[in-house]
């Protein structure tokens, strides 16, 4: 699997964190691709591909989804990757959408929209 899709996902994540995170984000939140752990790189690429396929299979009609629906999709796909790579994740790592902080929900929606734009 090419690292490029994962890199696009990561860049969208960093941009979203910088835009939406209240205050100074943890360094790991904005670490560049080269400093991102392998499992996160693989997960970023996998979620990118899931969103890209979803956009493609809908013939671009994902544009009609709300930001919440887009963000929920990214969050759900990411949670599945957490379970794949971390045997006993912390509850915060696999929190449901309603339990995620606002900055993270907004960032997830931004990620979807970035992938959506790159898929057209």
Q: How would you describe what is shown here?
A:
This protein is mostly helical and 120 residues long. The chain has one domain (4-118). The protein is built from four helices and no strands. The protein has helices at 4-20, 38-57, 67-85, 102-118. The longest helix is centred in the middle third of the chain and has 20 residues, at 38-57. The relative contact order is 0.20. The model has no long low-confidence stretch (mean pLDDT 95).
> Beta-sheet strand percentage?
under 5%
Number of strands: 0
What Rg, in angstroms, do the CA atoms define?
A: 14 Å
Shape summary: globular
Helix proportion: 55-70%
The helix-strand sequence is HHHH
Tally of structural domains: 1
What structural class do you assign from the helix and strand content? mainly alpha
Low-confidence stretches: none
What is the overall pLDDT average? 95
Biggest sheet overview: none
Counting DSSP H or I runs of 4 or more residues, the number of helices is 4
List keywords for this structure.
mainly alpha; 120 residues; DUF551 domain-containing protein; 61% helix
């Amino acid at each position: 699997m090419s690292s490029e899709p994962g890199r696009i996902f990561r860049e969208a994540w960093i941009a979203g964190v910088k835009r939406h995170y209240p205050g100074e984000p943890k360094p790991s939140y904005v670490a560049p691709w080269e400093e991102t752990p392998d499992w996160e790189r693989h997960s970023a690429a996998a979620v990118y591909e899931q969103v890209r396929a979803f956009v493609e299979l809908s013939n671009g009609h994902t544009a009609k989804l709300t930001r919440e629906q887009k963000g929920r999709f990214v969050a759900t796909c990411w949670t599945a990757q957490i379970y794949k790579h971390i045997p006993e994740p912390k509850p915060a790592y696999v929190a449901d959408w309603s339990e995620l902080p606002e900055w993270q929900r907004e960032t997830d929606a931004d990620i979807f929209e970035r992938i959506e734009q790159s898929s057209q």
